[in-house]
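Q: Hi! First time asking for a complex rather than a single chain. Here are the components, and I think there are two in total. Is that enough to go on?
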Amino acid sequence: MSVVLMDAVTLGRVIGRMAHEIAERNPDSDTLCLVGLQRGGVSLARRLSVILSGILGHAVPAGSLDVSLYRDDLDRRVAPEIRPTEVPFDPSDRDIVLVDDVLFTGRTTRAALDALSDLGRPRRIQLAVLIDRGNRELPIRADFTGKVVVTTLQQAIRVHLTEGGGNDSVFLEDL
Amino acid sequence: MNWNRRHLLDVRTLSADELGLILSTAKAFKAVSSRAIKKVPALRGKTVVNLFVEPSTRTRISFELAAQRLSADVINFTAEASSLKKGETLKDTLRNLEALNADFVILRHGASGAAHYLARFARCHIVNAGDGAHEHPTQGLLDLFTINERKGRIEGLNITILGDILYSRVARSNIWALLRLGARVTLCGPSTLVPKVFETLHPGIRVSWNLESALKDADVVNLLRIQHERQRASAFPSIGEYASLFGLNATRAGWIRPDALIMHPGPINRGVEIESGVADGGQSVILEQVTNGLAVRMAVLFLLNGGQSSELGL
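A: Yes, that's all I need. Here is the structure of the assembled complex.
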């Protein structure tokens, strides 16, 4: 079974609201940068960057980060495909917002914190997620959340974005 | 594409998809090597043993650094200073290393098939780092990576491999990788070292004893070292004669197209298979091969380390 959690209009409004919250909570916007986690967070970070640039009146850089090499389950699963890490700025002394589409166990976020630390020493790291689906296995929470959805382990969240070739939408599916 | 192999024993049995996965993974590791912090925790807590029964410096150093960059612990085990000299069998040596909980054994051995032999009963991952005149998989893969990075493709390229083909495991690993991805391979050198029978291996292989024709339409010229140590009887009268007939000097380098790459697995013998000016010239990618070798070996260790099934929701 598949349930629509967000259509294109709702998704656009939610991302816009998240951008305003990020702007509100980061008054020193000169040092604000976004880093999207591969794969789902990269397009979201780019969209947030465009909206934030409009709100703040200056460019807000966005990068991408692949955390595969920092995962804690590498010898338990097939070796993951490594996607590009492109952070076109030195993260040191910046306010970084990590962006991901879905927050689930928290293990990806933990790996991202390690990966980002190897690139520099940010002044502050915040976390923005489109969907928080609960079921955390680590003490991690998001600073900016699009929508909280109660899920079971037998369900999956599918986020489709036009950049990936679909229509903007979010589904909750039974596995 | 999922990687499901426990060992890397040869290139011949790798599919085009597996080769593509190794290339894309190596590309990611090359980017890691250009960062300020070049180390990642992917193999933290794992033990890699370099079991080099035949001498080698550069391959061992490359594997050692690859393992260290992945945060693994590394032990170097060389034949000269080991119990193999005291009569221990290769199988017993492996059993002992496994008793120390080695996760990877990188094997360099003078006997063709040595890595396949160990893989029959090994519990750890076996990586063939050169077995006799059979294969040197990571060298073939790093040559493939270098060509693909510089040329943007493999399919349709003309690759000339020049030198001691008969005794060269590097040539064999190169041949299998290049043919699998659709290149055409020309083998060239003295007829004693480049027998015509190689053409029967695959329709994509051509044997030529004419240096000028082998060089002039090549997109890549891969030179091989003369393997003194593997020739039982001399295949040519003298090193000087080899250099005068097949050495890549400035005149012969002029036959090569200006956009072609000149490669060599090292160590180079300046003045024998290649003249200094050519080795250090603009078409030479010899040192890039060394850099890429590190990335390819990191990729191989990383892929082999993976488990067998995908986890939920990742």
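A: Residues 309-314 of chain B have pLDDT under 50 and may be disordered. Let me know if you'd like any chain examined more closely.
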